[in-house]
Amino acid sequence: MEKIITHDQIKQAAKEAFEEASKVTGGKNADYIPYLANIDPNLFGLTVTLTDGTTYSFGDTEYKFGIESVSKVPTAILAMIQHTPEGVLKQIGADATGLPFNSVFAILLENDHPSTPLVNAGAITACSMVAPQGDPQEKWKAITGNITDLCGSAPQLIDELYESETATNFNNRAISWLLKNYNRIYDEVDMSLDLYTRQCSLGITASQLAAMGATIANDGTNPLTGKQVFAPEIAPKITTLIATVGFYQHTGDWLYTSGIPAKTGVGGGVMGVMPGLFGIAAFAPPLDDAGNSVKAQAAIKLFMQKLGLGIFNNEKVTIISD
Ligand code: GLU
Known about the structure:
The chain is an alpha+beta fold. The protein has one domain (2-320): Beta-lactamase (3-Layer(aba) Sandwich). Helix content is 47%, strand content 13%. The chain is globular, with a radius of gyration of 18 Å. Glutamic acid binds next to loops.
């Protein structure tokens, strides 16, 4: 089946999805990181960026919030750029754990083979893989430079969030040393964990995340800057990881009901990717029990429903300007 969607229809669907999701209540801010507990729970924004760069934004889309686990996506991409997708498969893996993002149990269960770069354990391992080995300053530059290229503008470290996370990341410290025990961390342990904690503490906006999603949807070329950030063959690999574990233990329910691969973070951000079509991002701090933003999920689902889109729908979709 062929389906043609106009820019105007996309704009209208995003506007209606934003307005309807604004009324959705429930959830609560992440409280295990003190900084996140204190963010205004009423903030809410939605941005869609098409692969031609056209962007529609509603609400608080320029508010800088903690990127948190959405940062696992760009660093997985960076590891693929530096070590190839096969290298990431070999050194980390691509299997969903079906368990919470910070599960220690998952590491014990999978000690003989790696997991995925989109849960805490695999993300800390991905930070350990970033080149150049043994040089935290240069590794940090590579991580933030890659995010800047993917978004078309720079993220900004939220110092208070970084301090807040560092002071409370006991579970992640346990994960890091357990990884060391299984020879699944490839650089200095505390440094790898610190890079992970710092990347989670980067401030990002919904509009920046939508641009990142659009860059993935556009096979690695940022539609806002025209820069090729990664090779086209990486796009389906990262989208596969997002589709299989982007919502942790709720990933199946999410993909089944929304039709779009998306990655969440406990800062309240959700970034979705529709290959060839668009990136979408929503942000609202209150989370469900798995750590996924309630309003952001509602907004993205409503947007997809209004346009009748789904990644597994048997149709060829073309977006045209009006
Ligand atoms: N910094 C958070 C942690 O590792 C990220 C978790 C998330 O966003 O899912 O605990």
